[in-house]
Write a structure and sequence with these properties.
Largest sheet of chain B: 2 strands, antiparallel
Strand content of chain B: under 5%
CATH architecture of chain A: Orthogonal Bundle
Distance between the termini of chain A: 24 Å
Strand order of the largest sheet of chain A: 1-2
Helix content of chain A: over 70%
Structural class of chain A: mainly alpha
Number of domains of chain A: 1
Oligomer: heterodimer
Strand order of the largest sheet of chain B: 1-4
Largest interface: A-B, 43 and 42 residues
Helix content of chain B: over 70%
Mean pLDDT of chain A: 85
CATH class of chain A: Mainly Alpha
Low-confidence stretches of chain B: none
Order of helices and strands of chain A: HHHHHHHHEHHHHEHHHHHH
CATH topology of chain B: ABC transporter involved in vitamin B12 uptake, BtuC
CATH topology of chain A: ABC transporter involved in vitamin B12 uptake, BtuC
Number of helices of chain A: 18
Mean pLDDT of chain B: 85
Largest sheet of chain A: 2 strands, antiparallel
Structural class of chain B: mainly alpha
Radius of gyration of chain B: 22 Å
CATH class of chain B: Mainly Alpha
Low-confidence stretches of chain A: none
Distance between the termini of chain B: 51 Å
Strand content of chain A: under 5%
Number of helices of chain B: 14
CATH architecture of chain B: Orthogonal Bundle
Order of helices and strands of chain B: HHHHHHHEEEHHHHEHHH
Chain lengths: 352, 343
C-alpha cells in the first residue's frame, strides 16, 4: 500500500523520513495542532507550493529544462477558476469546470511553447520563457476588463467552503468545524494527490528516460529516444499540475491577482525552493517549500529582533532588516547550487 | 583515346536577391521606420516616436552588447546582467545628486562635466563589480549552463537586495541637467534634447565598439575567440584573461547604459535592471548570440517597435516585442546574424 502510494521511491534516509513524516502530520492536522488564522494560511500555502514546486522539479530536476514561465501556468489555473466562477456563479461545478479548462489551456500553451522553443538550446529556452512570462504578466494586468487588471478578481466560492457555514455547533478539539476547515482539506488532499501523481511520473519508465536525457541528451537521442517529445510531454505534465495547483490557490485565497500568481517574484521563489530543497528528488519540493514559506512568514520576526539587537553596529542592522530576508535566502541559494546541488534532500540521503 | 570533354565553366552573377540577402537584417530598420510612417497618421508624432525609439534602442544596445559578446566568447550567459544596470544607475544618480551646482547651472559645459563624472563613477563601480561577479559567481560554473542560469539569477537577487540595503527601499527621482531639459521643435515635432544626445552617444559608442573589434589586436582575438575558441588558445592566447576583460567591459557598458536609462526615465528603482533584462534578452536573441552588429540592429528594431506600438495600441507594447522575437526566430532560428556556430 505504502509502496504503491510512493511509487517505490522511499526517502532512503532516516532523518529525511522523520522530517517528511513530521511535515505530513503537521500539515494533515494543521488546524488542530496550530490553531489560528495565520498558521492555517501558512499551512495551506505550504501545501500548494509543494505541488507547484514539485511540478517545477519535474522540469528542472528531472528534465534539465530551465523555464521561467512556470508562473504562467500557475496563473492560468488560478484565473481559470476565477473567470469560471465569475461567469457560472457560485458552485462546485464552476470550480471544476474552471480548473479543468485552466488545465487544458495550460497544456496547450505548454505544448506550443515547448514545440516552439525546446528545439533550441537550454539557454534560449530560459530566455524565451522569461520574456513570455513577463509579457503574460503585463498583458493580464492591462486587460482589466477581463482579468481585473492590477486589482485582480475576487472569487465566489461555494458557501460550504467559507467560514460562514458551520457543520456542527460544538467545537471538535477546540476547532470550529466550518467551511474554512473543509476548504483547507480540499487544498491538502488536492496537493497531496498532485504530489503523489508526480512521484508516480518520475518513477515510471518515462521518468527514467527523462533523467537519461538530463544527463546526456545526445546519447539518449542516439539510443533511440525522441528527446524533443519527452521534453515536451514533461513540460505539459508540469504545466497541468501547476495549473491545478493554481486553481487550488485561487480557491483557498478567494482572490487572484497578477502579484500573487504571475509575478517574477513568485517564479524566483519557486526556483529558490527547488534548489534549496534539492533538485531531482521530488521530496526536495516538500522540504524546500516548507522551509521557504516558514522563512517567508516567520524569519522576518527573527530578523527584526536581530536587527534591534545589533542596532549599535553600523550596516549590520540594515543587512538584518526584516525586509531583507530575500537577501539571505539568495545567498543560501547560490551556496546550495555550488556546494550541495542536490539540496537538503541530497545531503540527508548522502549521509544515510 | 577520347578527347577531353569541353570544359567551359560559366560564371553566373549573383542574383539581386542573393546580393541583398546579407543586408536584410540591416534593411529591416528603415523598413520598420517606413511602416511606422504609414501606420501613424500625424507626421510630427511619427518623428517624435522615431527619435525616441532610436534613443531607446541605442540605450538597450549599450546594455546588451556586453552580454552577447560574453556569451559568444565563453558560452556564458549572465542572468545577473540586469544587476549591473541597476547598480550603474544608482551610482550615477548618486553622483549627480552630489553635484547640484554642476547639474543646476545653465551652462552646457558644467552639465556635461557632471554627466561625465556620473558616467565615470558608474562605469568604475560596475567594472569592479563585474570583476568580482566573474570571480565569485561565474567562474566556478563554466561549462554548466543549468548552474550558470541558476547561480547568476541568484547573483541578481543578492545584488538587488544589496541595493535596497545601501540606498534604501524608496525609488529615487532625479531631474536631468539644466541644458538637457526640454525639447527642440523640428518640423512641427517636439523632440526631447536628451533623446538626441542619447542617439548621438549610442552611435559614437557603436562606432567605437566596431572599431575596437575590427581594427585592434584585442578585437581580433575576441572575434577569433567567438568564432573558434580552442584554435585561439592553441595559438597561444590565454582566452580566459581576454574573457575576464570582456566581462568587465560588458559590465561597465551595462552600468553606462543604466545611467543613461535612469536619466531617460528620471527615476531609479532596484527593480529596473530586472525589467530591462527582459528587453535585453529579446534583443540578444533576435540579434543572434555573439553578434554585436545583430545586437545593434535588434536593439533599434525593439526600440522603434515598442514606441510605435505604444502609441498605436498601448496595451500591446511588450507583447509586440515577443511577437517580433517569434517572427524572427521562425525566419532565422539562430537569430538574425548568428556568430556562434560550433558550440
Amino acid at each position: 500500500m505504502l509502496y504503491r502510494a510512493l511509487s517505490g521511491d522511499f526517502p532512503r534516509s532516516v532523518v529525511l523520513s522523520v522530517v517528511l513524516l513530521a511535515i505530513l502530520v503537521g500539515l494533515a492536522f494543521a488546524p488542530f495542532l496550530f490553531p489560528g488564522t495565520r498558521s492555517l494560511e501558512t499551512a495551506a500555502r505550504i501545501c500548494i507550493f509543494i505541488a507547484l514546486v514539485a511540478s517545477y522539479d519535474l522540469m528542472l530536476g528531472y528534465g534539465g529544462i530551465v523555464s521561467f514561465a512556470h508562473t504562467v501556468f500557475f496563473g492560468i489555473g488560478a484565473y481559470g477558476v476565477a473567470l469560471a466562477t465569475a461567469n457560472l456563479g457560485r458552485g462546485f461545478d464552476a470550480l471544476l469546470i474552471g480548473s479543468l479548462t485552466g488545465a487544458v489551456v495550460a497544456a496547450v500553451l505548454a505544448l506550443l511553447v515547448a514545440l516552439f522553443s525546446l528545439r533550441v538550446r537550454a539557454i534560449f529556452f530560459a530566455m524565451i520563457t522569461l520574456a513570455v512570462a513577463s509579457a503574460v504578466a503585463v498583458l493580464v494586468s492591462q486587460l482589466s476588463s477581463i482579468t481585473g487588471g492590477e486589482d485582480g478578481l475576487n472569487l465566489l466560492i461555494p458557501r460550504e467552503l467559507t467560514p460562514a457555514v458551520k457543520f456542527a455547533e460544538e467545537r471538535f478539539l477546540g476547532v470550529r468545524l466550518n467551511g474554512k476547515l473543509l476548504n483547507y482539506y480540499l487544498v491538502f488532499f488536492g496537493s497531496l494527490a498532485l504530489f503523489l501523481v508526480l512521484l508516480r511520473v518520475v518513477n515510471s519508465p518515462f521518468g527514467r528516460v527523462l533523467q537519461a536525457i538530463r544527463e546526456n541528451d545526445f546519447r539518449a537521442e542516439a539510443i533511440g529516444y525522441r528527446v524533443v517529445i519527452y521534453r515536451t510531454v514533461a513540460t505539459c505534465i508540469a504545466a497541468v499540475v501547476a495549473s491545478l495547483a493554481g486553481s487550488l490557490f485561487a480557491i483557498w485565497l478567494r482572490y487572484v491577482g497578477p502579484d500573487t500568481t504571475l509575478s517574477l517574484e513568485i517564479m524566483i521563489d519557486i526556483l529558490l525552493m527547488v534548489v534549496i530543497g534539492g533538485m531531482g528528488t521530488m521530496y526536495g519540493a516538500v522540504i524546500g517549500a516548507t522551509l521557504f514559506v516558514i522563512a517567508q512568514n516567520y524569519l522576518q520576526n527573527l530578523m527584526g529582533a536581530a536587527s534591534e539587537m545589533t542596532a549599535a553596529v553600523p550596516l549590520l542592522p540594515h543587512l538584518l532588516n526584516p525586509d531583507r530576508w530575500l537577501l539571505w535566502l539568495g545567498v543560501l541559494f547560490v551556496l546550495s547550487v555550488y556546494f550541495f546541488p542536490t539540496g537538503v534532500v541530497g545531503r540527508l540521503r548522502g549521509r544515510a | 583515346m577520347t578527347a577531353a570533354p569541353d570544359h567551359t565553366p560559366t560564371m553566373e552573377r549573383l542574383t539581386l536577391a542573393q546580393q541583398i540577402e546579407p543586408w536584410i537584417p540591416a534593411l529591416l530598420v528603415p523598413a520598420l521606420i517606413v511602416l511606422g510612417f504609414i501606420a501613424i497618421p500625424a507626421q510630427s508624432s511619427w518623428l517624435t516616436l522615431t527619435v525616441s525609439g532610436l534613443a531607446m534602442g541605442m540605450m538597450i544596445f549599450i546594455m546588451a552588447s556586453g552580454l552577447t559578446v560574453v556569451f559568444g566568447l565563453m558560452d556564458v550567459i549572465n542572468f545577473g546582467h540586469g544587476a549591473f544596470v541597476s547598480v550603474g544607475a544608482f551610482v550615477g544618480v548618486t553622483v549627480l545628486l552630489l553635484l547640484p551646482q554642476l547639474t543646476g547651472a545653465p551652462s552646457l559645459l558644467a552639465n556635461l562635466l557632471a554627466l561625465v563624472l556620473a558616467i565615470a563613477g558608474a562605469v568604475v563601480a560596475t567594472a569592479l563589480m563585474g570583476w568580482g561577479f566573474e570571480r565569485v559567481i561565474v567562474m566556478p560554473v563554466y561549462g554548466a549552463h543549468l548552474k550558470q542560469i541558476l547561480v547568476t539569477m541568484g547573483g541578481l537577487i543578492i545584488a538587488e537586495q544589496l541595493i535596497l540595503v545601501i540606498w534604501g527601499p524608496d525609488e529615487i527621482f532625479l531631474t536631468r541637467p539644466e541644458t538637457l531639459k526640454g525639447a527642440v521643435t523640428f518640423m512641427g515635432a517636439a523632440i526631447e534634447k536628451y533623446r538626441l544626445v542619447a542617439v548621438a552617444f549610442g552611435l559614437v559608442l557603436f562606432a567605437a565598439m566596431i572599431w575596437v573589434l575590427r581594427s585592434t589586436r584585442i578585437g581580433l582575438i575576441v572575434r577569433a575567440g567567438v568564432e573558434n575558441g580552442e584554435m585561439v588558445e592553441a595559438l597561444g592566447y590565454r582566452l580566459r584573461v581576454v574573457f575576464v576583460l570582456v566581462f568587465v567591459a560588458g559590465s561597465a557598458l551595462a552600468g553606462l547604459g543604466g545611467v543613461m536609462w535612469a536619466l531617460y526615465q528620471e527615476v531609479v528603482t532596484a527593480h529596473m535592471g530586472q525589467e530591462i533584462l527582459i528587453l535585453v534578452f529579446i534583443v540578444v536573441i533576435i540579434g543572434g548570440l555573439g553578434s554585436v552588429e545583430g545586437c545593434f540592429i535588434g536593439a533599434l528594431l525593439v526600440g522603434l517597435l515598442q514606441n510605435y506600438v505604444a502609441f498605436l495600441e498601448p496595451k500591446l507594447a511588450l507583447v509586440s516585442n515577443i511577437g517580433l522575437m517569434m517572427i524572427i526566430l521562425l525566419w532565422r532560428p539562430q537569430g538574425m546574424m548568428p556568430v556562434v556556430k560550433a558550440k
